[in-house]
Amino acid sequence: MKRRLLISAPLMVLAWSSSAVLAQVWPAKPVHVVIPIAPGSVTDLVPRLVMGQVAQQTGQSVVFENRPGAGMTLGTAAVAKAAPDGYTVLVTSSAHTIAPALYPSLNYQPARDFVAVTPMGVSPFVLVVSPSKGYANAKALIAAAKDKPGAFNFSSPGMGTASHLSAERFRLSTGVQAVHIPFKGGVEAMSEVMAGRVDFFFMALGAALPHIRDGKLQALAVNSARRSAALPEVPTLREVGIVDADYPTWFGQFLPAGTPRGVVDKLHEHTQRALQEPRIRDRLQAMGVEPMPMGQAEFEEFVRQQLTADATLVKTIGLKVEQ
To answer: Is residue 201 within 8 Å of 164, Cβ to Cβ?
Structure first.
């Protein structure tokens, strides 16, 4: 036993020294950022903007790779298997905590295989309808839906998306009965609402803003705790008396489990500094993304809580999705 201890102690010191050196020099080469969704959405634009600023601060380049597919789990799984050295970073959305509840056979687990590093922001979904419906506010929509139980419908970009779950939280909180109509993407889901064939849609704020401003969509409420600076005239669901319906989407940064603490701390510090840059803050706000100030440990706890909450919601509505 003593001999084993004598042998293992130098190995432990060596491992600690290697981690310390890795943290001290990070980043010493380009950082690979995986975005598990196709280009063009806010989930894609946020990491490009923020990590681009991190690259300027560190003087080291950042290489972006979009790896969409399977509800954002393909790119996420690739990062879970990457070397835990700080050079492969996952930037994803709240889909990260939804996936385990939807896909029980996932070959990774967020709580086990990742370290939550930095939240990059939060953005509400906005409850939109066609202006032709003539609803004065969210309460009018709810009243109309309750007058005709089961006759109303709502769209989403797909089963199990954050938009879909936003609408389900809304239904559970209000007692509204409505049929879910999933589409293959947000454009079609939005178009059907504009045409009046679908009654309502919880749409990502950044995507909805131009259509709201053009008068093609009417915004009734946002599903966040506070009003959005990008849409200050629109109330929150809480303000119109609907409790327990908050379900904004958030964007965050993750590293493979086992990444040295010093590297995690450095990435967190650089990202926080980038988020405080006025140019970055203004660009995010223009996209409907608000600050989400949290320390690394606080974000880790937030992710754990979201995993539990999303699992409960998916079970409550009986949602099953084939991967």
So the answer is: no
Angle at 112 between CA 251 and CA 320, to 5 degrees: 70
**Considering Cα of 48, then 52, then 55, then 61, what sign does the dihedral take?**
positive
- The structure tokens listed for 211 are 């259509």
- Cα separation, 102 vs 79, in Å, equals 19
Per-residue pLDDT at 14 exceeds 80: no
Strand partners, 219: 128
Q: 189: which 2 tokens?
A: 């889901």
**Could you please report the per-residue DSSP string of 59-105?**
T--EEEEE---TTTHHHHHHHHTS-SSSSEEEEEETHHHHHHHH-TT
Checking 292-296 for CB contacts under 8 A at 24+ apart, the result is 292/119, 292/120, 292/121, 292/122, 292/250, 294/118, 294/119, 295/268, 296/116, 296/117, 296/118, 296/264, 296/265, 296/268
CA pair distance 183, 115, nearest whole angstrom: 33
- In whole angstroms, give the CA distance from residue 209 to residue 56: 30
Question: Residue 171 and residue 165: Cα distance in Å, rounded?
Answer: 10
Residue of 287, 313, 310 whose CA lies nearest to 121: 287
List, in order, residues 6 or more apart from 265 with CB less than 8 Å away: 23, 296
Residue 249 contacts by C-beta under 8 Å, 6 or more apart in sequence?
43, 93, 94, 122, 123, 124, 125, 162, 204
For 35-84, write each residue's pLDDT tens digit: 999 999 999 999 999 999 999 999 999 999 999 999 999 999 999 999 99
Between the alpha carbon of residue 270 and those of residues 59, 148, 195, the distances in Å are 12, 53, 45
In this prediction the pTM is: 0.90
Q: Which residue type sits at 150? A: G
How big is the chain, counted in residues?
A: 323
Residue 304 has pLDDT above 80, yes or no: yes
Strand order of the β-sheet with 125-129 is: 178-182, 152-156, 200-204, 125-129, 218-222
- Rounded to whole angstroms, how far apart are CA atoms 292 and 50? 13
